[in-house]
Amino acid sequence: MRDLEGEHKPVGTAKEEARRRSFAWDLAETLLIALVLFVAIRGLILNYRVDGSSMEPTLHNGEMLIVNRRAYMGIPLGRWLAALPGVEIDQDWVWYPFGQPKRGDIIVFRPPNGGSEPYVKRIIALPGEHVEIRDGAVYIDGKRLVEPYLTEPTMWRGMALNHEYVVEPGHVFVMGDNRNNSSDSRVFGAVPMSSIIGKAWLTYWPPDEAKLLGTPAYALE
């Protein structure tokens, strides 16, 4: 009688190998999905740790933020549409599906001095606007900006001097909420929009201080 051992594996062994292959496939599939989700999420949001006191009392040293990296995503539709025959359109037109930077937004941006650590500041003025610091207050195009989050007057580089600045196209003027303890656009000028990493969305650490970071409803008087 022929020994069939070696030609046919016991049923139990075959089922065990099938289970192992199924487990290995499920594990690989789960890891792949997790990797794809991780890359997608990292493309949308960023963790940021506040370093310093320049945004007090709104943000404190050591707080952790979630930053929306796609808040100001721009799509150069003008460049694409201009390539179509018979279409007359400004090639520089950029569509912002989620909106452009607004006054009051708290943003994280690459440092203008070439450093490695991003800055976090608040947008005060937009492209083309005239900024004036006068008598401890900020004026935009001649109207006083009401800033309820401030606890002290605004000065220019630590001095009670009047100063004016016109924001260049494609730039924003930023300042810290801790107005007189902040290195910001009063020192290094307006920030190019291309340097903005994202908009600060919420704080999540410490948990008892977690909060959404909305944009104030500004008043110009």
Automatic annotation (TrEMBL):
<comment type="similarity">
    <text>Belongs to the peptidase S26 family.</text>
</comment>
<dbReference type="GO" id="GO:0016020">
    <property type="term" value="C:membrane"/>
</dbReference>
<feature type="transmembrane region" description="Helical">
    <location>
        <begin position="23"/>
        <end position="45"/>
    </location>
</feature>
<keyword id="KW-0645">Protease</keyword>
<dbReference type="InterPro" id="IPR036286">
    <property type="entry name" value="LexA/Signal_pep-like_sf"/>
</dbReference>
<dbReference type="GO" id="GO:0006465">
    <property type="term" value="P:signal peptide processing"/>
</dbReference>
<dbReference type="InterPro" id="IPR019533">
    <property type="entry name" value="Peptidase_S26"/>
</dbReference>
<dbReference type="InterPro" id="IPR019756">
    <property type="entry name" value="Pept_S26A_signal_pept_1_Ser-AS"/>
</dbReference>
<dbReference type="GO" id="GO:0009003">
    <property type="term" value="F:signal peptidase activity"/>
</dbReference>
<dbReference type="InterPro" id="IPR019757">
    <property type="entry name" value="Pept_S26A_signal_pept_1_Lys-AS"/>
</dbReference>
<feature type="active site">
    <location>
        <position position="54"/>
    </location>
</feature>
<keyword id="KW-0378">Hydrolase</keyword>
<feature type="active site">
    <location>
        <position position="121"/>
    </location>
</feature>
<keyword id="KW-1133">Transmembrane helix</keyword>
<keyword id="KW-0812">Transmembrane</keyword>
<dbReference type="InterPro" id="IPR019758">
    <property type="entry name" value="Pept_S26A_signal_pept_1_CS"/>
</dbReference>
<dbReference type="Pfam" id="PF10502">
    <property type="entry name" value="Peptidase_S26"/>
</dbReference>
<protein>
    <recommendedName>
        <fullName>Signal peptidase I</fullName>
        <ecNumber>3.4.21.89</ecNumber>
    </recommendedName>
</protein>
<keyword id="KW-0472">Membrane</keyword>
<dbReference type="GO" id="GO:0004252">
    <property type="term" value="F:serine-type endopeptidase activity"/>
</dbReference>
<feature type="domain" description="Peptidase S26">
    <location>
        <begin position="26"/>
        <end position="205"/>
    </location>
</feature>
<dbReference type="InterPro" id="IPR000223">
    <property type="entry name" value="Pept_S26A_signal_pept_1"/>
</dbReference>
